[in-house]
């Protein structure tokens, strides 16, 4: 029994390694071909369908991966989402696709309409390069305006791969993903705030810092004076944290 369990664990590790490698190969393929892929249909066949195949879905089986799924909204008839992923006989994920040269910011409203038309729990908006994952954390059956996670396959990292692994067919668990979605969503938004402040500290952030270190007037001139210092100190602080973590790793080697 112990040997059997070890074998299962090893197979799982191999499966994860294979998944990582396949995603990285797709990333290279995208970088190589994206300038030659100029239509939505070409994006689907070159990038999007291979992506969902890597996730383990049979993209040629309409009982599992249904193309042009009807998602009529109100009195509007004939509305169709590009793909519906069917789980246990019911649509669970809507996938709206755009050409790889399209800006996704212009198209979230389309997926928003489809999401409300069927009892799906997740929506994916993609141009074959960037994948934005949505759910309904704020109000049942109403898609959130912000994705709970976004993955760029051209700049894929370990956290992105871990997020994608949650959507693999063999490990898909709707309840677990939904529970993790709130933390993922707000962690991403908080990270974005820090990134913005790191690149270009806002007046509000500089004043927040000055409240504890400067007793004089915090007018516009003083804020502008301190901005470079705040940015430099913030950068040094982040570098110190990174170096500390690296030293901790080296100490255990």
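-> sequence recovered:
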């Amino acid at each position: 029994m112990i040997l059997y369990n070890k074998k299962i664990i090893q197979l799982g590790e191999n499966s994860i390694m294979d998944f990582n490698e396949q995603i990285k190969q797709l990333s290279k393929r995208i970088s190589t071909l994206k300038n030659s892929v100029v239509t939505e249909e070409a994006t689907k066949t070159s990038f999007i369908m291979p992506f969902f195949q890597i996730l383990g879905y049979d993209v040629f089986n309409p009982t599992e991966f249904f193309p042009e799924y009807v998602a009529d909204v109100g009195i509007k008839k004939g509305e169709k989402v590009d793909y519906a992923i069917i789980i246990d006989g019911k649509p669970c994920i809507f996938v709206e696709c755009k050409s790889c040269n399209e800006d996704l910011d212009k198209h979230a409203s389309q997926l928003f309409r489809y999401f409300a038309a069927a009892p799906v729990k997740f929506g994916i908006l993609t141009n074959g390069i960037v994948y934005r994952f949505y759910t309904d954390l704020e109000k049942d059956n109403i898609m959130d305006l912000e994705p709970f996670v976004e993955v760029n396959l051209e700049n894929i990292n370990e956290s992105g791969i871990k997020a994608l692994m949650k959507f693999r067919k063999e490990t898909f668990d709707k309840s677990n993903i939904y529970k993790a979605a709130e933390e993922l969503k707000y962690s991403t938004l908080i990270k974005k705030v820090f990134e913005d402040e790191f690149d270009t500290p806002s007046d509000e952030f500089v004043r927040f810092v000055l409240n504890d270190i400067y007793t004089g007037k915090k007018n516009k001139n003083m804020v502008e004076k301190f901005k470079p210092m705040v940015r430099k100190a913030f950068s040094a602080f982040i570098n110190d944290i990174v170096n500390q973590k690296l030293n901790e790793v080296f100490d255990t080697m």
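The longest strand covers residues 80-87.
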